[in-house]
Amino acid sequence: MRFRLTPRETSFYDMFAASADNIVTGSKLLMELLGADTAGRAEIAERMRAAEHAGDDATHAIFHQLNSSFITPFDREDIYSLASSLDDIMDFMEEAVDLVVLYNVEELPKGVEQQIEVLARAADLTAEAMPNLRTMDNLTEYWIEVNRLENQADQIHRKLLAHLFNGKYDAIEVLKLKQIVDVLEEAADAFEHVANTVETIAVKES
Q1: Cα–Cα dist 53/12, whole Å
Q2: Is 53 left (phi over 0), alpha (psi -120 to 50) or beta?
Q3: What are the backbone angles phi and psi of residue 69, rounded to the nearest 5°?
Q4: What pTM, to 2 d.p., does this model score?
Q5: For 94-103, what is each residue's pLDDT tens digit?
Q6: For 70-105, b where at least 16 C-beta lie within 10 A, e where not — what string?
Q7: CA distance 87 to 84
Q8: pLDDT 10s digits, 19-75
Q9: For the chain, what are the domain ranges?
Q10: Which of 8, 11, 177, 179 has the largest count of CB atoms under 10 Å?
């Protein structure tokens, strides 16, 4: 850890932790979506929308703190990147749920539950990791595991695409379902972006 002569603004740590906890809430709503009927999905979408708004508020609070702080716990561009990537995760999860409802999807293709399970695991790991930014301890396993999960998500995504294009679905349904699984893949990518940013911060602070 680099030696510093000046105090640092520490509220960022709590705000990053709160943002990550909100993502766990979003991942749980995704899990609920899997077993919900049409009416249940609409209600889940409302709760997900509220969680996404809470995520936006958390991100704006970080940006406001960043703009008003003279001393920051680590580089400003890394704070901005981390906050933005956390916000992206929530945006993608909310978009996926919204699309399921808007497209009135009756049945999600087999394999989507695996996508969502990967996202839920990545969410838990991210929430566990954020408090460790204070000390930069025990973070290596976090970013290694999230990168492994992203690779797993890539494989699941490719299998899903192969399934969608096997002729079982009509063209319109393929377009709808592909957009949903693509957005879930983007959420997995965003988790990797968060992990990569954390790794960059840890290397700089070492």
Answers
A1: 19
A2: alpha
A3: -105, 130
A4: 0.92
A5: 999 999 999 9
A6: eeebbeeebbebbbbbbbbbbbbbbbbbbbbbeeeb
A7: 5
A8: 999 999 999 999 999 989 888 999 999 999 999 999 999 999 999 999 998 888 989
A9: 12-205
A10: 177
